[in-house]
């Protein structure tokens, strides 16, 4: 797709999204960020110039901040778009929300559901009939088997594997390299082989 794309988030993840967008045909890309001096402007500047852009995506790796920014943009009728790298393999029967990012070599299988603002990072895979909630981050090299359910805002760490039909609750963090073979509750930190909930996340941590 050609046109003008605004990316909210000018950090490392924002640059990954920009690369995918450029390869995908967006010919003008502008960064907005409250904390990066090289960005074209702040969130406030983006809100004031939404009519200048054909698409907007939030490229903030932290799930809670990404959700907060996306919901704020939605109240202003921002033209939210998905950015799917051309090498990503998205089944024709997969259903994607808005503001989804699929990095190089990411896979979403048949009848998978990917919620608003979710990230399928580099070489990650979500198999058939999986349900990935809004603002989930599937980190590079993580693999989710068929019919897995992942709740809102959950983080699946680099290189993790999740067995078929497992359910993981909202806002849980699964550590890198974990092997998830049984259900995990909401709002916990889990890791290991097999992965177990090691402790609950505090309210302070949930705000990060």
How does this model look, in words?
By secondary structure, the chain is of the alpha/beta class. It has helices spanning 12-23, 43-48, 63-75, 203-206; strands at residues 4-8, 28-32, 55-58, 83-84, 89-90, 95-96, 101-102, 107-108, 113-114, 119-120, 125-126, 131-132, 137-138, 143-144, 149-150, 155-156, 161-162, 167-168, 173-174, 179-180, 188-192, 195-200. The strands form 4 sheets. Strands 4-7-10-13-16-19-21-22 form an 8-stranded mixed β-sheet, with helices on one face. The chain has a 6-stranded parallel β-sheet with strand order 5-8-11-14-17-20, with no helix packed on it. A 5-stranded parallel β-sheet has the order 6-9-12-15-18, with no helix packed on it. It starts with a strand and ends with a helix.
What are the main properties of this structure?
eight-stranded mixed beta sheet, globular, 208 residues, 28% strand, UDP N-Acetylglucosamine Acyltransferase, domain 1, Rossmann fold, alpha/beta, 2 domains, 4 helices
User: Unreliable segments (pLDDT under 50, ≥5 consecutive)?
Assistant: none
> Which range best describes the helical content: under 10%, 10-25%, 25-40%, 40-55%, 55-70% or over 70%?
10-25%
How far is the N terminus from the C terminus?
Answer: 34 Å
Rounded to the nearest angstrom, the radius of gyration is 17 Å
CATH class of the largest domain: Mainly Beta
Any idea what the shape is? globular
How many structural units, i.e. domains? 2
Largest sheet: 8 strands, mixed
- Classify the fold: give the CATH topology of the largest domain: UDP N-Acetylglucosamine Acyltransferase, domain 1
**What's the rounded overall pLDDT mean?**
96
> What fraction strand?
25-35%
How are the strands of the largest sheet arranged? 4-7-10-13-16-19-21-22
Task: Label the CATH architecture of the largest domain.
Answer: 3 Solenoid
Number of helices: 4
Question: From N to C, what is the helix and strand string?
Answer: EHEHEHEEEEEEEEEEEEEEEEEEEH
SS content category: alpha/beta
CATH superfamily of the largest domain: Hexapeptide repeat proteins
Compute the number of strand runs. 22
């Amino acid at each position: 797709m050609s046109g003008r794309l605004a990316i909210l988030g000018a950090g490392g993840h924002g640059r990954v999204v920009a690369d995918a967008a450029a390869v995908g045909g967006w010919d003008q890309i502008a960064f907005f960020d409250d904390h990066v001096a090289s960005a074209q402007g702040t969130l406030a500047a983006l809100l004031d110039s939404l009519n200048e852009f054909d698409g907007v995506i939030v490229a903030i790796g932290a799930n809670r901040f990404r959700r907060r920014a996306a919901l704020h943009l939605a109240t202003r009728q921002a033209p939210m778009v998905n950015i799917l790298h051309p090498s990503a393999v998205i089944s024709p029967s997969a259903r994607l929300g808005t503001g989804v990012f699929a990095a190089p070599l990411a896979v979403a299988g048949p009848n998978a559901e990917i919620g608003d603002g979710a990230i399928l990072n580099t070489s990650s895979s979500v198999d058939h009939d999986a349900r990935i909630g809004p603002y989930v981050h599937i980190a590079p090299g993580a693999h989710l088997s068929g019919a897995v359910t992942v709740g809102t805002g959950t983080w699946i760490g680099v290189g993790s594997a999740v067995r078929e039909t497992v359910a993981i609750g909202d806002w849980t963090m699964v550590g890198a390299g974990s092997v998830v073979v049984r259900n995990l509750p909401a709002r916990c930190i889990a890791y290991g082989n097999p992965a177990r909930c090691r402790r609950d996340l505090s309210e302070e941590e949930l705000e990060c």
